[in-house]
Amino acid sequence: MTDTAVLGRSQGMVREARHLLFTVTPGAAWIIVFLVLPSAYLMGVAFMTNGPYGLPQMPLSLDSFKQLAGFGFLGWSPGNLYTLLRSLWQTLVATGLVVIVAYPIAYYITTCRAKWRPIMLLLVVVPSWTNQVIRTFGWMNLLAPGTPLSSVAESLGLIAPNMGLYPSNFAVTLGLVYNFLPFMVLPLYAAFEKLDTAQVEAAQDLYATPVKAFWHAVFPQTLPGLLAGIVLVAIPAFGMYVIPELLGGGKALMLGNLVANQFSGGSNWPLGAAGAILMLLATFAGLYAMRRIGKRLGGGEEVVI
Amino acid sequence: MTETSTAERHSQRRDEPHDGARSGVDAAGSERTASAIHMQGLHKRFGASTVALDGVDLTIEAGEFFTLLGPSGCGKTTLLRILAGLEDADQGRLTIGERDVTEVAPHHRSVNTVFQSYALFPHLSVRDNLAFGLKMRGVDRAEREARVERIAEFIQLGDLIDRRIDQLSGGQRQRIALARALVCEPDVLLLDEPLSALDAGLRSQLQVELLRVQKRLGMTFVFVTHDQDEAMVMSDRIAVLNGGTIQQVGPPREVYERPVNAFVARFMGHANLYPISARQGQRVTTELGELELEPDLDTPQQGGGELLLIRPETLDVRLGRHQGVNHLAGRITERLYRGSHAEFRLAVGDTTLQATINNRGRRLPEVGDEVTLVVAPEDLVTVAN
User: Ranges of Basic and acidic residues compositional bias (chain B) (predicted)?
Assistant: First the structure.
C-alpha cells in the first residue's frame, strides 16, 4: 500500500470525525446540559438529608425515600401512598376515558370526505394551542358552584347542594381527559387512515360477526396508534401538576403536586427529588409494559412508540 | 330470512342432495356437495352516475369453474362482491343452492373469498389465519386443528404453518389465502383476480394447481379476471362482461371462436373485423373481397352479423399466387418473430389484416413477400357490431 493511499484514508477519517463533531455536538451538549446534569443533580439531592429551609445537605441518607414511603417523625402515615395511588388511578381512568372518547372520533374523521378531514383534525388540535392554565381556568368557571352545569348535576342529585362540580376528583379527571384528547386522536387517526379494509372484509367473509370483525380485523390494525396514544397521554398525565392543582382545589393531589410542593414551598428538596425519581421509574416501567403488550398483541412485531 | 345453523345445513345437504348440487370429494376424502348460483336482474350503481351492474341474469352450475371476464370497470368485481355479500344489489335476486341470499350478511353465507390482495391477517400466524373461519363458526378446537393440518398438507405448505405472514413469499401467501377459504368447505369459492400479483411463471403454475384443486373438490368456483388467456385456461364457462352487462356466456372455445359481438371478439384475442357490405346466400362481400361462409356459422342468432371475423391463426399463409375459394392475394408488410410462432401484418387490396403462423421450422415469409391467404369457410364467423 502506498503512502498516499494511507494518507488519503486517514484524511477521510479526519473529515468524517469532524463531520460527526459538527453534527452531533449541539444535540449532545443540549442533552448533557439540560437532561443528564440536572438528572444527576436530582439523583444526588434525593440521597441527601433535608436541611433548614428544605435545602439539601450532607450526610447522604435514605431519609427522603423513607419519607416518601410515609415514615415521618410521627410514625407511618398513608398520605404519600394515597397521593401515589391517586396518581395511578387518575392516570388509568383518564387514559381509559380518553381512549373511549378518541377512538370513535378518530374513526369518524376518517369516514369524512378527504377535504374535511384536515379541518376536523384542526378542530381537535386547536384548543391545545391555548395555554393550559388558561384552559383549566376555563373549566373552573364552567364547573364552579352555581354554574349551569353544577346546577344540573345538583338537581340530578349527583352532588351535594352548593358544592359545585369543582373542586373535585371528577373535575380533575375531566380536565385530564379534555387536555389529552388530541394526543390520542392524532395517532389513532393515522392508524385508521391506513386501515386495510380488505382484512375487515376477509373477516366478514370468514363468518365473523360485525363485533368479531372489529375485534380481529380492525382493532389489531389500530393497536400501534392506540399504544402510541396511551404513552403520549398516560406519561404526562401521571406527572400532571396544573390540572390537579387548579381543578382539584389542592385536595386531590397527584404525584406532580407532591414533588412541586417540596420544591416551591421550600419544604423538602430531597423528598421532592425522591418523588421525581419515583415518577421517572414509573414512566420507564410503563413504557416497558407498553412495548411488551405491543409485541404480544402485534404477533411478535415491534410496535414503535 | 330464516337462519339455519351450519351444522344443520350440512347434514341436510348430505342426507337429501337436491337438484343443482353435485357431489365431490374434499381434502378429507369425505363426500361434499357444490351449489348452483342463480342471479336474476341484478342492478347496482355507485353514487348518482356510476352504473356497475345493469341487469345481470346468470346461472352458474354446481361444481363449475366459472369465470367473470372483462376489462376494469366492467362490473365483474362488483358482481363477485355481491355474491360474497360484501355489497348489496340495488335490485334483483340472488340464490345460492336452494337459499335466497339476496339480503343475507356475508358471515351468514356459506361462501368464501380469495381476495386480490390476499387480505391475510398480519398479526396472526399462518395456522391462526387458516383456523380463523372455523373459529368464527364455532368449530371445536380439536376438529379445527385437524382440519387446518389437513388443508396445509393439501396445499403442500405444512412446513410453513407456524410462520408469520410477513415471512412468506407472494406465491405462498396466495396459497395460504386459498387454503384459508377452502378449509371452511364453502358451497361456493369466490376468487377475485387471485393470481394477478404474481409473476408469469408462478402464475401459470398456480393456474394449473388451482384447476386441479377445483376438479378434485368438485366445488363451485367463481373466478374473476381481466386476462382472457387465464380465463380460457381455467374455465368450464366464461361470462364476458362490459359496461355492467353480460355480453356472452359460454365455454372458452365458444366465446373465443364464436363471439357474439365485436367487443367479445376483440377482448378474447386478436381479431380481424370487416363490415359486411353485401350478402348473397352464403357469400358475403367486405373490403377484402367476396368470401364464403358455412351456413350454420352465420351468427348471431342466424340472422347474420354485420361484421365478418377472421382470427389471425385461422389464416393459412402460402407463398406465391394461388386461386380458389376464399383465397386472398396479399403482401407482407410487417413480421414479428416470437419463436413458437410469428405474427404478420399484411396488405390485402386497400386494407390490412393480421395473420399468425406456427413455426414448424419451415421457411417463414419475409416482409415484402407476395402471399396467398386461405381461410376455410367453417373458420369464418359473423358477429354483431
Answer: 1-21
**What are the tens digits of pLDDT across the range A17-26?**
888 888 898 9
Query: Residues in chain A whose beta carbon is closer than 8 A to a beta carbon of chain B?
Result: 196, 198-199, 201-209, 212-213, 216-217, 220, 223, 297-301
For B75, the 3-state DSSP assignment is coil
Assigned CATH class of A78-297: mainly alpha
Closest in A207, A223, A300 to B133, CB measured = A207
Q: Do A207 and B113 touch (CB under 8 A)?
A: no
Residue B1 is assigned to a structural domain of this protein? no
Nearest residue on chain B to A295, alpha-carbon basis: B123
ipTM of model: 0.79
What span, in angstroms and rounded, lies between the C-alpha atoms of B97 and B21? 7
End-to-end CA distance of chain A: 48
> Cis bond leading into A167, ω under 30°?
yes
Same domain membership, residue B215 and residue B182: yes
Q: What is the pTM of this model?
A: 0.77
Last residue of a domain, one of B194, B222, B256: B256
> Do the chains contact at A204 and B112, CB–CB below 8 Å?
no
Report pLDDT digits (tens) over A34-52: 999 998 988 888 888 877 7
Q: Answer yes or no: do B121 and A216 touch at CB < 8 A.
A: yes
Q: How far apart are CA B222 and CA B367, in angstroms?
A: 45
